[in-house]
Amino acid sequence: PFFRFFKVNLYCDCEFWPDAGMCFSPDCCVEACDDSEVPEPWRKEVQHQLADRVEDKAAHPEGGRGCSDPISPVDRSVGAAEVANLNTVRNWSGLNNPWVPEDDQDVDFIYVNLQLNPERYTGYKGEDARRIWQSIYAQSAFDDVHGHDLVVNPQVLEKQILYRLISGMHSSITTSVIQNYYNETSGEWGPNLPFFKARFVGDNARPYVENLYFTFLFMLRSVMKAGPVLQSFDYNTGFPEEDILTRQKMQLLERSPALLASCKAPFDEGVLWQAREGAERELLEEQLQVAFHNITKLMDCVGCEKCKMWGKLQMLGIATSLKIMFSASGDPREPLQLHRNEVIALVNMLNKLPDS
């Protein structure tokens, strides 16, 4: 059950435009977890910190809420007391992760059972959905990135990597929709072959497919690099037998011959930042992180709850992968630390990409 539950904030307002569209289809809605579903240790591990948070808010009453509740017919069956118990460590999703924008509004997070909320066609489309993707690709960090070939210009290698990861995520989302499409005429669920051919068949579609493979290999490589951290991670859910099985599966994942063969050299992360030093490197890194923060915040503008939830999970998965790949290997002064939601997002996205 460790990888089944994802902690997410679906309540934040869109920062980029005031008229974010809303999808009122039942397929757009997310079913929040009942408190009894969430692993008990997760609810109890930091109860002693809740009192500190209450005291902090009492000392700073001007803090207020930064987000508003969505207008949707979702039945959220988690009461106020349960919500308080489900809150975990401050900045759980982004602690020590420069690729994740800080969000202290922990009270607005819910747990979602990913098995009960699969990524599929929801009916969310049209101008609002197009505006999201247009804004993503319009980030200034992508201005001088053209195409998908990493050897075109080493001077923009890091920008190309980020662009390809976002494009690969886009392709993965599209294939999930195609595989689980609702035929409004027949009333049946199934693959949409015409949609697939239009999107992924032909020379013009080649970059989308290659970027999908690149994203998969990039994340595989990051899992290999983070192997020791993932092996020693605490997978406690309160069910010892299942927790042991989870740890064993993670060990098998890292030692898989197929994985080892795939991850020998999808690319050499050692070449990153080689074209820049000092202040120039810091400026580029900051530019890329700002772009990634903006893209992450654009997920709050998605009018479909389920699309927003999966978008946030995949953005956190990529952010975790970037955090791993750009970390200093073997430096005891900067040990890699991953947090529960990061591991959940990383593994769920890694699991989703091969299905794409």
TrEMBL record:
Gene Ontology cellular-component terms listed: endoplasmic reticulum membrane
According to the UniProt entry, where is the signal peptide? none
- The disulfide bridges present are 23-28, 304-307
Biological process per Gene Ontology, one example term: protein folding in endoplasmic reticulum
Q: Name one GO molecular function term.
A: protein-disulfide reductase activity
Active site: residue positions: 304, 307
* SUPFAM superfamilies referenced in this protein's UniProt entry, alphabetically: ERO1-like
Q: Does the keyword Nucleotide-binding apply?
A: no
Q: Which family does it belong to?
A: Belongs to the EROs family.
- Its protein name is Endoplasmic reticulum oxidoreductin 1
